[in-house]
Design goal:
single chain; alpha/beta; 8 helices; 6 strands; 33% helix
Length: 257
């Protein structure tokens, strides 16, 4: 009897937990196309109605920087506002994912959405490995304060968020109930150390600290630590596909020199 009572209590707790959980469904990465329009408005509306009939609370959608700022300080949220209107009419909530990275080349990427052209065409703002390979998934954190056409990346992000807030001001907190901020490759706060075009499981990846701005930062930190002779990040850590036992960096430790 005691065991049955305990089981009943646990089942009741699980039911209460389930009742208090909201369910959001992620939409396709290219729901809004590179031109800023809904890919299939009629088909999407039908899918949203089906979600509502299944008691889903809302949807999550990537809001791509490369789609919404086609030219500096010129913003286009039309497709997303049309999507919001659909959700509002149907009774669904929205989670927006602010995607400042490129789509294409990562696991699950089904489309190609580059960064805005006025950013993508710039030099010396990308992560770079020791062999000179640049990764254009996301503007390097080492370039946060580099001026690009009159603004730094941090200022660009700030301007974009202001434009987003203005575009959805009437629905923030009601229809739009959450905003998730992407902060790196694939939206993750990390270095692009294991790009699929270069890497295979279970390689160690590669340091992404050899661009001009990263090297400047490294040398400044070394000088501040009293070691001006340290002039480079590790160069003995193998390659993208190396195993830990293949390189002296992982076998013997590292000393800047």
């Amino acid at each position: 009897m005691a065991a049955r009572t305990l089981a009943s209590i646990l089942l009741g707790c699980l039911c209460l937990s389930a009742q208090s959980s909201s369910v959001f469904v992620m939409l396709a990465l290219d729901t809004v196309t590179n031109s800023g329009d809904l890919k299939d408005a009629n088909g999407l509306k039908n899918q949203l109605q089906q979600l509502k009939s299944g008691n889903v609370d809302g949807i999550m959608v990537d809001v791509w920087w490369g789609v919404t700022e086609p030219s500096p300080k010129s913003y286009k949220f039309d497709g997303y506002k049309q999507l919001l209107g659909m959700c509002k009419d149907i009774g669904l909530k929205m989670q927006l994912v602010t995607s400042f990275h490129m789509c294409g080349g990562n696991v699950g990427d089904t489309c190609d959405i580059p960064l805005p052209a006025f950013v993508n065409n710039q030099a010396d703002i990308w992560y770079k490995d020791q062999k000179g390979h640049e990764d254009k998934e996301y503007v390097s954190l080492f370039a946060d304060n580099v001026t690009i056409e009159g603004r730094t990346p941090l200022q660009m992000y700030s301007d974009w968020f202001q434009a987003l807030a203005e575009a959805f001001s009437g629905d923030l907190g009601s229809v739009v109930v959450e905003i998730q901020v992407g902060m790196g490759p694939a939206g993750e706060l990390r270095y692009p150390a294991y790009q699929l075009s270069q890497w295979s499981f279970c390689g160690v990846g590669a340091f992404q600290s050899f661009d001009k701005n990263a090297l400047t930062s490294f040398k400044a930190a070394a000088a501040a630590a009293g070691h001006k002779e340290w002039d480079s990040p590790p160069t003995d850590a193998g390659d993208y596909k190396s195993r830990p036992g293949d390189s002296s960096f992982f076998n013997s430790g590292f000393q800047s020199a």
